Amino acid sequence: MKTFSEISFKDAAQTYALANTPLYLLRKLHRDPLVHEIHASFSGSQILAELERVMLVPPNTSEDYVRPYVYLVALALLDDITPLKKASQLPNREKWEWFSYFQNVLYETYAATSTLSIQIPARPSIDLTRTDTPAEWNEITIPKAS
Amino acid sequence: VDLLGQTEELALHTRRGNQIKNEINREGPRYGDALVIRDLQKKYPNSRSRTKEPSRKYNCHGLCFAARRTTIIETPEVKRILLEDDYIEIGLSGVLPGDIAVYYTIDGDIDHSGMVIEINELKVPVIVSKWGTLNEVIHQIPQCSYDASNVKYYRIIT
Asked: Which value does ipTM take for this structure?
């Protein structure tokens, strides 16, 4: 995926049309490979900028209607919550009936998925005389008392 | 959310007199809805459309619990209806036309509902349900896009 214009939202639009509740759409989009591809291909600021751009144009097709929801879920996968938070201030939100609900649920349930690397300093000394490794156990023979 | 003045809440109460959150959206069909209906007809060839046109006025829960007047989108509201309208759960072997099928997710959310209209020769309930903002469809319980692995059936106590 190189540009946003190359993305097909056809399947997402079908999911949206079938959604009886916003949570259904949210769950389905969370599992949609498209969302994960967008998350992997673009930065948070790029996704947010594209979200803002599409929301400046009145929605016309079913794909226009689902696109902001796809981007919101992609933003919720980021390590940084800031772009998702900023999405709550975008103009024309009222044209997407579940936008505020979506943004609120994603914000409230946000869980950072970043990997934290912890460096543990090397031990200053190693006890070479005893380990708990079975392979290094030594058989100890106790001589019988005479 | 008042979608550009096209949505409003109707007075809708449970038997116990409590208002049920709902919204009717009077917006007409959107471009692309008809194509989705056509795609789904191909995907589920054994299903039958009861209505041809998409509608945003009501959803599946609105069909089952509000006589097709409005949309109910929150799971807690559906659960409140089941409780406050005196529904009881029915085992699969006892299901009759007129009972309500409720599609639960693994975490207890409700994705879909439909009204049982017959039990076919394979003992599988057939329902009429509304597919999102699309049309009404007559289908066997598993023949739809909603997860049918945890469907429960309910009957209202008269």
From this structure: 0.91
Task: Please give the residue of chain B at the shortest CA–CA distance from A66.
Answer: B32
At residue B33, the 3 state secondary structure works out as helix
Taking CB atoms and an 8 Å limit, are A62 and B4 in contact across chains? no
* Cα distance between residue A133 and residue A131, in whole Å: 5
Q: In chain B, which ranges are E strands?
A: 7-8, 24-25, 48-49, 87-90, 100-104, 110-119, 125-130, 136-140, 151-156
pLDDT tens for each residue of B108-141: 999 999 999 999 999 999 999 999 999 999 999 9
Say whether pTM exceeds 0.95.
no
Residues 6+ apart with CB under 8 A from B122: none
**Residue of B9, B26, B30 for testing the chain A interface, max A β-carbons within 10 Å:** B30
pLDDT, tens digit, 9 for 90 and up, residues A70-88: 999 999 999 999 999 999 9
